[in-house]
Design a protein that fits this description.
Elements (H helix, E strand, L loop, with lengths): L4 E3 L5 H10 L11 H11 L3 E4 L7 H6 L6 E4 L9 H6 L4 E2 L6 H16 L2 H9 L20 E5 L3 H12 L3 E5 L6 H4 L3 E3 L2 H4 L5 E4 L13 H6 L4 E5 L8 H9 L3 E6 L18 E3 L8 H19 L11
Parallel strand pairs: 1-2, 2-3, 3-4, 5-6, 5-8, 6-7, 8-9, 9-10, 10-11
Helix pairs in contact: 1-12, 5-7
The structure holds (2R)-2,3-dihydroxypropanoic acid.
């Protein structure tokens, strides 16, 4: 008999094929709320639950997960949507999918940096409106990224992959992290223990720190004011790191030259005032959204589930 699995959100087609081959799973591509997922676990007498970061799993939901469920596997690197302490308290293994989305998320950060600096949204809008007006050599100018200083908040796997790409574009790298990296990982990037001390040196600031209480609204009116006038701001981490009213003000008043935003506080809702600003390049939380990476994430989540259901330790445990 195949093990029984509930999948709470639409997943990549190849991953769905693997699930149907290996599991008894009533997957139909529907997005479930956490409550619906718990109900499905009961109805299907499931052994495992695969989720994504689109829905929160607070302590009361974790408590409602049936005892026969052996693992909660999130198909994401981010984990702040899950009360891990509550899962640990009841002995429920929780796993995520690190590593496999590093490169694509770093690519998207560069896409945002380049589009924000080089006015990608505006150029695209001009072309879609028919162009027809030639621009003088002093019009519609962007910012050169070569030679600029890129400040990175969070120098984990994704932050380092962004740094590697940015070096190729001729940028100088500075970073703030909870601890200084060894030279082999630092690669001559300059370390700032104090986030506020780093900000005045950033021509471009990109966020790669996890969400959660420690980083909530770390980008606010005060920290934005420490960036030099004309700086560019990019976020592919989590919307919760940003006070969006303060960011809107900094963009609208011209303190910031531009922003590239992939993540928002209340996704999939977002403050549509950002869409009215021509100097903002927007994406709907797509850092990992390539065929290869979404397949790899699904496979990693399924590998974690298979390990636990076979009585082995999970590959990517979030508590031990
Ligand atoms: C992640 O993996 O955390 C991405 O942001 C998708 O949720």
């Amino acid at each position: 008999m195949k093990p029984r699995l509930i999948v709470s959100r639409q997943i990549a087609p190849d991953v769905a094929t693997r699930i149907h081959a290996e599991y008894d799973c009533p997957y139909d591509g529907r997005s479930m709320t956490a409550e619906e997922a718990v109900q499905a676990l009961h109805d299907h007498r499931a052994d495992a639950l695969m989720i994504t970061s689109h829905v929160r799993y607070p302590a009361e939901i974790i408590a409602a997960i049936p005892d026969r469920v052996k693992i909660l596997a999130t198909c994401s690197v981010g984990t702040e949507h899950i009360d891990i302490a509550a899962a640990q308290a009841r002995g429920l293994p929780v796993t995520n999918t690190p590593d496999v989305l590093t490169e694509c998320t770093a690519d998207l950060a560069l896409m945002l940096i380049l589009n924000a600096c080089r006015r990608g949204a505006e150029y695209d809008a001009i072309m879609r409106a028919g162009w027809r007006k030639g621009y003088g050599l002093g019009e519609m100018l962007g910012l050169r990224v070569w030679g600029k200083t890129l400040g990175i908040l969070g120098m984990g796997r994704i932050g380092r992959a962004v740094a590697a790409r940015a070096r190729g574009f001729g940028m100088r790298i500075i970073y703030c992290n909870n601890k200084r990296l060894p030279p082999a990982l630092e690669q001559h990037a300059e370390y700032f223990a104090d986030f506020r001390a780093m900000l005045p040196h950033c021509d471009i600031l990109t966020l790669h720190a996890p969400g959660g209480p420690a980083t909530s609204a770390i980008i606010n009116a005060e920290t934005l004011s420490l960036l030099p006038p004309g700086a560019v701001f990019v976020n592919t981490s989590r919307g919760g790191l940003v006070d969006e009213d303060a960011l809107f003000e900094a963009l609208a008043c011209g303190h910031l030259f531009a922003a590239g935003l992939d993540v928002f506080r209340a996704e999939p809702d977002f403050d549509t005032r950002f869409a009215d600003l021509p100097n903002v390049f927007l994406c709907p939380h797509m850092g990992s959204a390539t065929v290869e990476t979404r397949n790899a994430m699904g496979d990693r989540a399924l590998d974690n589930i298979a390990a636990v259901l076979a009585g082995k330790p999970p590959l990517d445990p979030l508590w031990t």
